[in-house]
Amino acid sequence: MIKFPFQNLDLPFKDRVEDFVSRMTLEEKISQMVHDAPAIERLGVPKYNWWNECLHGVGRAGLATVFPQAIGMAAAWDAEMMFDIATVISDEARAKHHEYLRQDKHEIYQGLTFWTPNINLFRDPRWGRGMETYGEDPYLTAKLAVPFIKGLQGDNEKYLKLVATAKHYTVHSGPEIDRHTFDAQTSDRDFWESYMPHFEATIKEANVYSIMCAYNRFRGEAACASNFLTNEILRDQWGFDGYVVSDCGAIYDVFAHHKVVNSKPEAAALAVKSGTDLNCGCVYNSLGEAVQQGLITEAEIDVAVKRLFLARFKLGMFDPEQDVSYAQIPYSIVDCDKHKKIALEAAQKSIVLLKNENNLLPLSRDVKSVAVIGPNANDADTLLANYNGYPADPVTPLRGIQEKIGADKVSFAYGCSWAKELPLMEIIPSLALFTKENGTVVNGLKAEYFNNRDLSGEPVFCRIDKELDFTWWEKAPADNLNADGFSIRWTGKLVAPDSGRYAIGANGMSGYRIYLQEDLHVDYESPDEAVTQYEYIDLQKGQEYKLEIEFYKTNGTSKFQLLWEQPNVDLQNQALDIAAKSDVVVMFMGLSRRLEGEEMKVKVPGFDNGDRVEIALPAVQDELMKKIHALGKPVVLVLLNGSAVSFNWAADTVPAIVEAWYPGQAAGQAIADVLFGDYNPGGRLPVTFYKSVNQLPPFHDYNMQGKTYRFFREEPLYPFGYGLSYTNFKYSNLQMPKTVKSGENVRVSVDVENGGQRAGDEVVQLYVTDVKATVPVPICSLQGFKRISLEPGQKQTVEFVLTPRQVSVVDDDGNFVVEPGEFEIFVGGKQPGFIGRCDAETTQVISQVIEIS
Predict the structure, then answer these.
(1) Helix axis angle, 79-102 relative to 138-153, nearest 10°?
(2) pLDDT tens across 764-795, in order?
(3) Residue 841 phi/psi, 5° resolution?
(4) Mean predicted lDDT score pLDDT of the chain
(5) Of 16, 222, 421, 534, which residue has the fewest beta carbons closer than 10 angstroms?
(6) How many helices (H) and strands (E) would you count in the chain?
(7) 3-state SS, residue 315
(8) Are the C-beta atoms of 710 and 779 separated by less than 8 Å?
(9) Closest by alpha carbon to 688, among 708, 705, 704?
(10) Could you report how far apart the first and last alpha carbons of the chain are, in Å?
């Protein structure tokens, strides 16, 4: 029965929202402006948490299909694939959300408003969060972000499928350690030419419904309290009509760290008046005080509240589920076979072949023995990067190779850890754990399972757990336990097989504490990500150490693994031994999400707070590669990492090099397919690989000169847009007018032919250089690309249309202007102008000069 106009489904959403907000008290309005919004029972509003993640799959909400990390998706250079991936993600997000509703769950990571994608410019490889982005180029970023957002938000005329959020607006890309305090400074030219075009595209081309403002200041204004960035540009200039959400804790930074104002009420009032509608945090709870102090009016608060509720109405949250087609998506589609296939295709397309001397690759399946070596060879966590979900069956590279050629042909050794002072953790085996059961000493730990979060009262049941390696997802360890509120206590003895310095810790989600000899050594709580925590402890061989572990379920998913790194293990010689006995060596090196990421506590040389101080591969990896190479065996280097690394010795010496990023759940199969020729790699670098950090300006410098392919004038290790193939491609018949009038489109076409013996993908790239510009311009600028598939001998005509904006320059005042003059248009399978190792013969570049009058 319709009681109020906002319940009338025949009225437009805006009218329903106007009526709804008019019935709210000021206190109720304020309560809805923080990310964890409480229920308003009298109006039928359920509790809602706005915080959700889906960077490369539904994140932090248990089971999901996990695609390559964003930087890997960008390396595919495939806009159509981005839409397909986003459609899978939004299908799973909808299915999971409605399953939560059926269980009356309304917690973090269970809603429909997603804080994705991260489209910040990856201007410097030292930034730890660069892996979350689509690379260093604003055009590539825009062309990948737009279809991704469309796939998330759907195409229903009435309802949004999800809300996507373009973040972090705008001049934001590290350093992580200073992100709450630094003031980014750029010229007007860099601001409009490099930092803004992709944000503009997400609004004008994708109709993104949410924007997340950044932590830092820009030209003195806190980004989340900037009238210039939000009201003047986003809303007035670009016509954005969605809502703006703060990064988490960013409103607190306005007064506490940036010191733009002096108090919470002032910060809250300034942020709302500047256009930030939703506070991830709790500073907006002080808006009542701000009203009392005359800092803001209720009418100004109403503007933000209406924007927020319009989003919820558009998501169908106040309409019958049967009226919302997206609500009918079944939960069974989560990580289904169809989605797994798309994850495999995405992983395959993301792989970049950097070097293939004497056609070492692809390897023959008839090879008699393969040594698989490296810290990334068999580590499932590395595949998933950050802001990730959890697939049911992730395939590591080691497993992928074993399944490809047979496990009997494959030997494995770690060889080294990722970096010095970063332990290589493994499950503590049952042989090192002891307890008593019925008076008899047995292997394992006594486990007491409680039906509450605080280990209180009597346990529901007890048992012996041989090893602590559990992933319960969103379920409980047993049917008679509450999936949202259980706890476990494990007790027993730990006995070390050797004397020495052990790293002892765990990898888990929810909360846990580890006591040894009754001393607390690890104390961790997070519903977000499973992060390995540890402490170094000296143990004596054969001595019994009292061990107690407490685990308690918070929100989201539950996982716990008890881990250690043993001392006195000669990892390097283990690797050298198996390499000497094998016909081919495949080394899986690179980085790890334990080293690079968001505001991390990493105490490892070369890394700082999630960022990198150096960009070279850690020395322990370089040392191992040199010793393996000295054996004289054919060596293939496969890199897994989220940012550009330098590996100058390997680039000169190792015959075959593959960049695989953090490839997601299908990593092993995709990599094996490339190594053994079942898939011809066609990925391209979305970032420049530099030779050294010495080639870069200071990390804090936000001016673009000297960084990214558009402004970098030295020779890189590998350039943006680079990637090889097992075949070669020929370009011919480049067609475009010789002269065009200012303001007209430029039509360009080219014929591309597969001149080799294998089918393969080519990424056709178009770059523009303004030959006679009167203002500083990029060396060249990507303005078109298309990934195509060609059979041997097949030829295809590829067409591009350049708009006036794409041949414009940015003047000193930040305006886009088309200047008369000469422009050189380059079309080919790579960026123009590079020689040496990057002058690959598998593809070419041709060009023509046009004149704009």
Answers:
(1) 40
(2) 999 999 999 999 999 999 999 999 999 999 99
(3) -90, 0
(4) 97
(5) 421
(6) 19, 37
(7) coil
(8) yes
(9) 708
(10) 66
Tokens linked to 570: 């000669």
pLDDT digits (tens, 9 = 90+) for 724-738: 999 999 999 999 999
665 close to 75: Cβ distance less than 8 angstroms: no
Burial class of residue 299, CB neighbours in 10 A (0-12, 13-18, 19+): exposed
Residue with tokens 């600028």: 781
What's the predicted TM-score (pTM) here? 0.98
Whether 749 contacts 716, CB under 8 Å: no
C-alpha 248/C-alpha 35 separation (Å) is: 9
Question: What is the DSSP pairing of strand 469-473 with strand 519-539?
Answer: unpaired
Confidence band, pLDDT 50/70/90 cuts, at residue 29: very high
Rounded CA separation 711/707 (Å): 6
Give me the phi and psi of 194, to 5 degrees please: -115, -40
Known catalytic residue at 53: no
Q: What share of the chain is helix, strand, coil (3-state, %, to 5)?
A: 30, 30, 45
Give the type of residue at 284.
Y
Residue tagged 């059926």 (tokens): 102
Contact at 8 Å (CB) between 216 and 172? yes
Catalytic residue among 53, 596, 608, 611: 596
Token code pair at residue 819: 């200047």
| DSSP per-residue string spanning 46-100 | PPEE---B-BTBSBSSSB---PPPHHHHHHT--HHHHHHHHHHHHHHHHHHHHHH
* Six-digit token string for 811: 């003047």
What pLDDT does residue 143 have? 98
Q: Is 247 a catalytic residue?
A: yes
Give the whole-angstrom CA distance, residue 387 versus residue 143.
22
Measured distance CA(74)–CA(68) in Å, rounded: 9
Residue 103's Cα: distance from chain center in Å? 29
7 Cβ contact partners less than 8 Å away, ≥ 6 residues apart: 16, 318
Provide the CB-side half-sphere exposure for 714 (13 A, CA): 15
CA pair distance 744, 570, nearest whole angstrom = 67
β-strand partners of 163: 113
- Tokens read off for 103: 């269980």
d(CA 473, CA 527): 11
CA distance 184 to 226: 13
In 652-728 the beta strands, taken as DSSP E runs, fall at 656-659
Could you report the per-residue pLDDT of 595-615, keeping only the tens digit for each? 999 999 888 999 999 999 999
Distance CA 287, CA 265 (A): 6
Structure token digits, residue 693: 């950090």
SS3 of 614-633: CCECCHHHHHHHHHHHCCCC
Q: Of 78, 221, 247, 335, which residue is the catalytic one?
A: 247
* All residues at 6 or more sequence positions from 496 whose CB lies less than 8 Å from its CB, including other chains: 432, 502, 539, 540, 541, 542, 543, 545
CB-based burial, 646-656: b 16+ in 10 Å, e otherwise: bbeebbeebbb
In this prediction, residue 669 carries a pLDDT of 98
Residues 191, 203: Cα–Cα separation, whole Å: 17
Contact 50, 243 (CB under 8 A): no
Helix or strand run (H / E) with residue 19:
helix 13-22
**Of the candidates 47, 61, 88, which has an alpha carbon nearest to the alpha carbon of residue 338?**
88
Q: Which single residue is written with the structure tokens 């200041």?
A: 217
Task: Work out the average pLDDT over 227-255.
Answer: 98
Residue 200, helix vs strand vs coil: helix
Instruction: Please state, in angstroms and rounded to a whole number, the distance separating the CA atoms of residues 544 and 44.
Output: 58
DSSP for residue 689: B
Q: How far is CA 774 from CA 422, 745, 821, 853, in A?
A: 51, 22, 10, 15
Q: Give Cβ neighbours of residue 301 (< 8 Å, ≥ 6 apart).
A: 26, 29, 30, 33, 272, 287, 291
Residue found under tokens 């909808």: 94
Per-residue confidence band for 545, with pLDDT thresholds at 50, 70 and 90: very high
